[in-house]
Design brief:
Layout lengths: L5 H10 L4 H7 L7 E4 L12 E3 L2 E6 L10 H4 L3 E3 L6 H7 L8 E4 L6 H9 L5 E5 L6 H11 L4 E4 L13 E7 L20 H18 L3 E11 L8 H10 L3 E2 L11 E3 L3 E4 L9 E7 L17 E2 L5 H4 L9 E6 L2 E6 L3 H10 L2 E4 L1 E6 L5 E3 L1 H5 L9 E3 L2 H8 L13 E7 L2 E9 L2 E4 L15
Parallel strand pairs: 5-6, 5-8, 6-7, 8-9, 20-21
Antiparallel strand pairs: 1-3, 1-4, 2-3, 7-17, 9-13, 10-13, 11-12, 12-13, 14-15, 15-16, 16-18, 18-19, 21-22, 22-23
Helix pairs in contact: 4-5
Amino acid sequence: MNPLPKGFTQNILSLFPEEAGYFFESLSKPFISSVRLNMLKPSAAFSNDDAIEWCPNARYLEVRPSFIEDPLLHAGAYYVQESSSMFLDAVIRNLPIPENALALDLCAAPGGKSTLLLNALPQSALLVSNEIIKSRVGVLQENIIRWGAVNAVITNNDPKQFQKLGEVFDVIVVDAPCSGEGLWRRDPKAMDEWNEENVALCVGRQERILQDILPCLKPGGFLIYSTCTFNELENEKQVQQLIASANVEAYQIQIPATWPVYSVDQFQFRFLPHKVKGEGLFMAVLKKPFEADTSNKFQKRNSLNFVPKKILPQIHPWFETPLAFDYFMENDFVYAFPKNSIPHYEWVRTNMYVKHAGICMGKLDKAGRLIPEHSLALANGLNKEIERWEMDKDTALQYLKRANLTPPAQIKEGWCLASYQGLALGWVKILPNRVNNYFPAEYRILKDIQEA
């Protein structure tokens, strides 16, 4: 490991004088991989590995496998994520979040915290998953689609643009861009980019993001601020300044004393590498005080182009509970969206750039029949009567590489779900003399998956 930057070591010595030796020693220890299981897609994946204290559906791994060679990853059975960042699960489950909440993950790519929120929030909540940087939106969309949740909207907007929505969010998660000190054990090369000027640049960026997004928090709503750095300027000082200058206050949550988490006044939490198996993390929980009138009528919203009723008989059979959705057209594609969240979505769509929403089902052919999209294959709640081709691992990997396939004789002609251990991977179309592989070319197996 390269020598630690002098400014960094001096800061750690001032922050943790009695523990600094253990802290520095821990940075040379191996990185421990971890995964979080998708509660919407139960599987036997990693059932023998140790559970993570603050996220019961997550596991520490004794050995890091080749994730890319596991079809269950592509089916959305789990997400490869650093364990400390999963503390968000414990925070969300400690908050009194309303059933039909509107939540925002502001800096969402590649999707770790968004997929976590889709399991931890009430099932009737709607998540807006936003990525500021356009080039990172694609990987966010891939991971959200793979997760199979129907109650997500993906946007690509600057934080200040959200102010057009007003005070609408019950929960806002800001996992802010930071100096990344907490990730050096996982990525030692990142240390070379550290300097005090970069820290100051991050502090300024964090301040702007927080000031821009705070007007969008509903009175009585919660702001969760996190970084993957140890620097006090980016963490406690940032929170202190926000409390002093904005209409937010500390919100305490109770966590078990046995957890190896350093708690400051029960609303700020630090994960230190010599105490946890994961990496460095800071997380704070804040609340905007409640006010009497918290109504927002989403006025002047643009209505959706709903699918004509005569088309619905072609669409409903794809789902187990089709009446739970409304269906609309966008750029010739049919989308299914949770009926209870339509007003929220119409308001977001009126004011924001939306990349993806709910389930993109596919396009209608001239006869009104649906040509299904990949996101429909991975969505939860598909009709169990849809034809499935249950594949072994070798065949599933060939499918994920878009190789030529030979189907079993009993498979009927037409659209069919490629499936592995009961979980859908995507579509194939069975024809009289061949199989068309519809796994998206941009998602096919090319390289290993990185943790997020």
